[in-house]
Amino acid sequence: MSGPDPGEAADPPHWLGHRDRLKQRFREQGGDALPDYELLELLLFRSVPRRDVKPIAKDLIKRFGSFAEVLGASRERLLEVKGVGEQVATDLQLVAAGARRMAKGAVAQRRTLGSWAAVIDYCRTAMAFAEREEFRVLYLDKRNGLIGDEVLGRGTVDHTPVYPREVLRRALELGATAIVLVHNHPSGDPSPSQADVKMTRDIVALAKGMGVEVHDHIIVGRNGHASLRGMALM
Q: How would you class 26 by CB atoms within 10 Å of its CB: exposed for 0-12, middle for 13-18, buried for 19 or more?
């Protein structure tokens, strides 16, 4: 029995055609037309150039729930997924960092924070899908221009220690006349707890004596956001 003709080219891997078709759909229809796992595939093409990445993309979505939650996952948890190595984890976190930088730029380029839409978008991009609680403060000048954006605490899945005097000390150092408090709920539910309300009121009381206004305390989660000002809780 004769073997294959050595001069005959082998059939290309099936996933090469899939990659070309998916890229073409993205060019013609844009990212909004693609489900989460296919958008993730497009990112993985560059990280894993010689392998079918659809199973990896689907496993990532199954593990974390959505495209946004994959980008918000820690390096350690990403590496637990079969097929995800250091290169893939690094590239995914690079995309997440780029998204946060873009959202932050949209806020910083505004002369004032008169529109809350960009602020909410930035806070959700930066924090909503984090696996642990973070507490950040936006420091504003007298025209509500952003002069500082700092994470003042990182904690556990349901608690971050917050020190009101540290929040106000930093406001005085920056010359801020107003602040916006922001933290996330990794559970996904942005509803404020009694501890959130008490901490907010403690900061408001301390800030008032220092001539600093607390515009709002915004809580973000994957299921939305809550404004303590809007809920009349401060």
A: middle
- Model confidence, pTM: 0.61
Q: What's the domain range around 91?
A: 14-100
Closest CA to 218 of 171, 187, 179, 177: 179
Last residue of a domain, one of 61, 78, 100: 100
Residues 118 and 88 in one domain: no
Q: What is the pLDDT along the chain (234 residues), one digit of tens a residue?
A: 445 455 444 555 666 678 889 999 999 998 888 999 999 999 999 888 888 999 999 999 999 888 988 988 889 989 999 999 999 999 999 998 888 787 766 665 554 555 677 788 888 888 888 888 999 999 998 888 888 889 888 876 566 678 899 999 999 999 999 999 999 998 889 999 999 999 999 999 999 999 999 999 999 998 889 999 999 999
Looking at the structure, do residues 154 and 59 belong to the same domain, yes or no?
Answer: no
